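Input chain follows. Return structure tokens only.
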Amino acid sequence: MSDLQEDPRWIHATSSRWFAGKDSGAVPVAISPMDWIVPPGGHGPAVRAEILSVEYPDGRTEDYQLLLSYRTDRIARACIGRGLAEGFEWVHDAVRDPQAIAALIGATTGGGHGRDWQGHLEAGLPADLLPIRAFEGEQSNSSVFLGHSALIKFFRRLQPGRNIDIELHEALARAGVTSTDRLLGSLSGTLAEGDSGVRVDLAMITTRIRGAQDGWGLATAAAGRGEDFSSQAGRLGRALGSVHAALAEQLGTSTLNGDGIADAMTARLGSALAEVPQLAPYAERLSGLFDALRGRRLPAQRVHGDFHLGQTLFGDDGWHIIDFEGEPLRSLDERRRPDSPLRDVAGMIRSFGYAAATATGLDPSARADWERACVESFTASILDSRPGRSEDDTLNAYVADKAVYEVVYEHRNRPDWVHIPLNALETLGALETSD
């Protein structure tokens, strides 16, 4: 165990944004190389995925993909260590090694395969995939731009079965939805488990949105200038409405027992309270918001599951919604389970709250006005796009549940931001008291 804790691959993982086990007592159990995707012996780097298995104090285990390139030369921005494979002095994070990514794309397209991996090309790739550049933003996975027309996303935390992002992209494509990126192909692997193997998806390739601007960047820039963003918020609501309609058509609908949803929200609150004591003053009022769902049947379907401004792009043809994996802290079963479309609505409401909070040049009342205008325009457009309007207290419960999730996330990853969701809970508590 101590040897692995000194391994540069483990050190690289624990310092990466995508590793969810920070400050949780996770320890490395094994690092298991898969078959070479780009084998040694060529003129460039050798490339393979290596599976980092970790264990937590409570016995839980997780598997993470380390995509590594092995070279005789060193690339400073990508290097993570040395001496880990025979014939190579240096090992690198392949995501930051453009030559390695180019070699991987060449090896996996057209049905390329190895002993325990398989390329799946759904459509022809654009001819020009250069330049190759890693996306530098914060993500729970790792994305690399391929020229100006495509992008490859490598999944870091691996879970058995079809990746949800790929599954929902396929459903949206069948429905002819254009307000997302188009799936071009994928890469899957087989992990050894006992005497058999378990399929996992390793990566997906999608189109890049022409003229794309990051939704979070657009909104925060507008908020910082005190510039009205409500019309854009309304357009974004309509784009989400088209996605919800397509997912319902392709993957079906159901209903949820409000008692079960309230129980789940209350349980998440209890877990959050044990980890973040600052939540204690809000606990009673939050429980009241969740209890309002009891005795109801809520419409349910497959949803985005982690919808916020960072999951949107504004292109030449309008808004596009991306990254359909769901909240990374939830289990795969939870993320695949049908849920109320209001979960996505609540996620964007909270995202407008975050965007407003960044506008430090505005006084608090101006920030609140900007947020309120966005939320009202967005909710009016999305709720009007479905038959019947949901009651405000149902949406408030989902907003509160999202804010509790955010408190835990910020406590673990960005403690300086934890006041943002706590302030939202204060506002929600005030609304509930006034009712």
